[in-house]
Amino acid sequence: MSMDQLQTILRDIIRDKKYLLVLDDVWNENYELWYDLRNLLMECVSGSKIIVTTRSDHIASIMGYVSTYKLKGLSLNQCLSVFVKYAFKEGQEKQHLNLLEIGKEIVKKCRGVPLAVRALGSLLHSSNFEQDWINVRDTEIWKLDQKDNSILHALRISYNHLSPPLKQCFAFCSIFPKDFTFYNINLVKFWMANGLLKAYNENEDLKTIGMQYIKELMLRSFFQDIQDFENGVYSVKIHDLMHDVATLLFQNEGLIVKGSNQITTKTSYRHLLYHLDASKEEAPSFLPNQINSERGNLRSITFFTRVGENITISQSFLELIVSRF
């Protein structure tokens, strides 16, 4: 379906209607795109509202026709309440006042961001050893540049305490787009296909190991928005900030390509992710000429399209990829 067709459908839906539209976590700084969208959305009943959330002041100035509202972090007491909920079993904090005092110092460093507080609380939940808590409080990561990445530093601490296999599996998730819905069965198969799951004895089943990894990441707040389905199937998502951590860690391993004009001179990527628009380009038309990866380095190529779009990959194209890499 072309962009013109989508605009026509949207125009028909909102015409003569009052609506509330929420655009969450916007990063696109192209004013022209926002201008076109605004003109499209103005064909509605007076009184409709648009709420935009972003972590960029520049984007807020581009999109805003009223003054921006900057959300403040949680208060220290609110953060401590969240931390206690995740770090202790109910009522247990009263039995470990020494840990609670250290926890207060950790919470102060999270700067009111509940995700960071929750992640570190989940990290310390299984430990009553004071030295473990002191190690988190005094880790060198807090001493890094705090101007823009203090939250990522806090989340990085949680990542550093994962086992090596879990680190690899979580970082690998960054090649999927933000807000992507992971189904447990498919994610385990994806990890298996890329050789990330290893059994240490012949009685261990790789699928079982993968499911244990997902549950561990859920318990440590790396996965959220859990939705259960039938027959043991469930879905999870990664918070945008957690995705930023994974992307930072995986940036030298994978490349996300969003158009045929994007070229890179780096040749050591092991994983390529293509965001494709079926209305503008087909994968076989540009992919072979664009890939600069050295023979033997590339391990996976993944294609993503918009919901409802399909791009056909021909047999000849697959044979070309296999023969080249």
Structure keywords:
single chain; 325 residues; mainly alpha; three-stranded parallel beta sheet; 45% helix; 11% strand; globular
Give the low-confidence spans.
281-286
Mean pLDDT: 80
Structural class: mainly alpha
Q: How far apart are the first and last residues' alpha carbons, in Å?
A: 33 Å
Radius of gyration: 23 Å
Task: Describe the oligomeric state of these chains in a short phrase.
Answer: single chain
The SSE order reads HEHEHHHHHHHEHHEEHEEHEH
Helix content: 40-55%
Number of helices, where a helix is a run of at least 4 consecutive DSSP H or I residues: 14
Largest sheet: 3 strands, antiparallel
State the gist of this model.
This protein is mainly alpha-helical and 325 residues long. The chain has 14 helices and eight strands.
Describe the structure.
This protein is mainly alpha-helical and 325 residues long. It has helices spanning 3-14, 31-41, 57-63, 76-87, 97-108, 114-124, 130-138, 150-160, 164-172, 184-193, 206-219, 240-250, 283-290, 315-324; strands at residues 20-23, 49-52, 182-183, 224-228, 234-237, 254-257, 271-276, 300-305. The model is unreliable at 281-286 (pLDDT under 50).
